[in-house]
């Protein structure tokens, strides 16, 4: 009979939840102006550098506004120059005693007003030209372009999401725990992110626990940081996450070592009696199955020699020859 020595292993008490992965480094790009898209310079999945043009919004209306204001500015400059020449002439006439002080003051006022109008319009032109820059949407940083839901010809507003720009780095797992578990959750709780086969892929900890329960779903939001240096995870991806409530050392034995009879579970251990070993049947209490092993809550102690083969043919007290 094959036997194993029961070893105490760290066994977690866990609950599995669906978690949504959220990137803190994938901001949405939105335009700062409204208008119709005339060009799209990139495609989804393309890696771009900071300052790379992403798309263009039709600038013709804004260019026309700038042109109109520049024409008006030339007119204001002409008026300012006329009033300046008139002021210089009035100063000479006043010095010669030909005109009154009030006429000189009126000319000074007209010049000051014309100069102020020209300066205000120049400031407006600078602002409109600065606004013209926003009609070409550029990447604010280096990254990978996400989905582009808009098309050439679409009209966009300042609330329209044009695309996202993912610069990589760590992401966050959002888990929603039932409100009745609120007392048990805490920061630094271990979390395991599982793969498709149900095996732990990486281990992290909770760094954020929401101070309030969502009234609609009656759940509490927990967040855990997930390393993503190899970009194996994607923004908004759903994964299985195992929240670990506690961990304690318990023996684990193979499923093949356990038999069931009348609703109870049994295992055989090899005990030495004199010069021989005999099989002793024990009632056991088991917990979760981890891999191909049962977690034993009661009935088996670390160091017990557990028989793992031929248990269906054993009887309590039967002599056995243990084989490791």
* CATH fold description of the largest domain: Elongation Factor Tu (Ef-tu), domain 3
Average pLDDT rating = 91
Level-1 CATH class name of the largest domain: Mainly Beta
Rough outline:
rod-shaped
Encode the helix/strand succession as letters: EEEEEEHHEEEEEEEEEEEEEEE
How many structural domains in the coordinates? 4
The number of helical elements comes to: 2
CATH homology-level superfamily of the largest domain: Efflux pump adaptor protein, beta barrel domain
What is the rounded distance between the termini? 8 Å
Radius of gyration: 39 Å
Q: Name the strands of the widest sheet in spatial order.
A: 2-11-14-13-12-15
- Strand tally: 21
What CATH architecture label of the largest domain applies? Beta Barrel
Helix content: 10-25%
Largest sheet: number of strands, sense, barrel closure: 6 strands, antiparallel, barrel
Strand content: 35-45%
- Provide the structure class: alpha+beta
Unreliable sequence segments: none
Topology readout:
Elements lengths: L2 E3 L2 E16 L4 E2 L5 E6 L6 E2 L4 E5 L2 H36 L5 H33 L2 E3 L4 E3 L9 E2 L6 E4 L4 E8 L11 E5 L5 E10 L9 E8 L11 E17 L3 E4 L2 E10 L2 E15 L2 E6 L6 E3 L11 E2 L4
Antiparallel strand pairs: 1-20, 2-11, 2-15, 3-10, 4-6, 4-9, 5-8, 6-7, 8-10, 11-14, 12-13, 12-15, 13-14, 15-19, 16-17, 17-18, 18-19, 18-21
Helix pairs in contact: 1-2
Task: Characterize this entry briefly.
The chain has helices at 60-95, 101-133; strands at residues 3-5, 8-23, 28-29, 35-40, 47-48, 53-57, 136-138, 143-145, 155-156, 163-166, 171-178, 190-194, 200-209, 219-226, 238-254, 258-261, 264-273, 276-290, 293-298, 305-307, 319-320. With 324 residues, the chain is α+β, with helices and mostly antiparallel strands. α1 runs antiparallel to α2.
């Amino acid at each position: 009979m094959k036997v194993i020595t029961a070893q105490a292993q760290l066994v977690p008490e866990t609950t599995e939840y669906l978690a949504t992965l959220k990137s803190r480094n994938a901001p949405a790009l939105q335009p700062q102006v409204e208008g119709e898209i005339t060009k799209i310079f990139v495609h989804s999945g393309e890696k771009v550098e900071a300052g790379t043009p992403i798309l263009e919004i039709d600038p013709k209306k804004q260019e026309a506004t700038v042109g109109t204001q520049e024409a008006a500015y030339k007119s204001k400059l002409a008026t300012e120059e006329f009033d300046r020449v008139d002021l210089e002439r009035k100063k000479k006439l006043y010095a010669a005693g030909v005109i009154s002080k009030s006429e000189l003051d009126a000319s000074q006022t007209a010049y000051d007003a014309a100069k102020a109008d020209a300066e205000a319009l120049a400031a407006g032109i600078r602002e409109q030209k600065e606004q013209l820059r926003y009609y070409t949407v550029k990447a604010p940083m280096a990254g990978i372009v996400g989905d582009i839901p808009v098309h050439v010809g679409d009209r966009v507003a300042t609330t329209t999401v044009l695309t996202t720009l993912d610069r990589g780095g760590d992401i966050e797992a959002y888990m929603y725990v039932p409100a009745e578990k609120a007392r048990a959750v805490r920061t630094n709780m271990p979390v395991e992110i599982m793969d498709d086969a149900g095996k732990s892929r990486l281990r992290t900890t909770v760094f954020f626990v929401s101070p309030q329960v969502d009234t609609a779903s009656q759940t509490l939001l927990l967040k855990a940081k997930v390393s993503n240096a190899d970009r194996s995870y994607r923004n908004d991806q759903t994964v299985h996450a195992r929240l670990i409530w506690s961990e304690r050392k318990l023996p684990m034995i193979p499923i093949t070592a356990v038999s069931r009879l009348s609703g109870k579970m049994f295992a055989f251990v090899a005990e030495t009696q004199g010069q021989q070993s005999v099989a002793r049947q024990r009632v056991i209490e088991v917990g979760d199955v981890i891999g191909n092993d049962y977690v034993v809550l009661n009935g088996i102690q670390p160091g017990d020699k557990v028989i793992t083969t031929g248990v269906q043919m054993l009887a309590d007290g039967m002599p056995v020859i243990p084989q490791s």
